[in-house]
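Trying the structure run again after the queue cleared.
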Amino acid sequence: MQNLLVMVDRTLEANNALETACYLEPHVRIQPIHVSPPQEHNIAMGAGWARISWGKETMKKARRDLQDLLLSKGHQCPHINDPIVVSGDSVKTVMNRFQEGDYDMIITGAPFRGLDALGLAHRFRDAMKKPAKDLPLLIVSHLGTVHKTLALTDGQDPSARALGLLNRIGPLLSEGITLIGIAGKHVTRHVPESLILEQGLAILKEKDIDAAGHTAESLGDDGIREQISQADLLVCPLTSEACTDVYVRFGQEVNAVLFFIAAH
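Done. Tokens:
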């Protein structure tokens, strides 16, 4: 069973992220986390015990504000925990919780506090500490079920590890996986896209996942755009310039994108 750390607040985007996590039941446990912005010192707030009291009340209010949201999901999310409510930098705080806890994935909605999906993914990448574990970051932009999955691979190690993740979460994806092999940029040796695709399909085959496959060259821009338009979830290794370029050009309207952020 996968352990999901889901960022929540009172926004529509956070509701979409939590709904998406609930769609993955009964294969997941859900840990909601709410991070309030840092409490800057304010003269009107006072100091000493008054400031501490104000901070406690702020956390209590945040917890109360989340109760209706979480109670409304209880019937479809039997494995949802009580929320973690803290204050601080949202990305760094959630990143630290993920690294220190037994979590398999972070889920959040976008836009998030002014950040689009790619900007948010870069913030999480920058927040990773050494040593760190790989971060699967699922960013939900539009509410919808997650069944049809399209994965991008350039044949490099982060792409292979992202496909290994798909092997582990295969039961969550009920309508199969399609793979697109893309020639990587700035690599030391040229590898044909057909070989990149073959290697990716072999990784999935290890867990008896019979994925469909195409090369980017055979599809062309129109074919890539069509494949992405039919997907509920796009899987993209963030460190791959070739894959993120495809996301930027064709994938920003997809319901959800799983950025795989490889550890340093």
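Confidence is low (pLDDT under 50) at residues 41-45, 49-54. Worth checking whether this holds up in the mutant runs.
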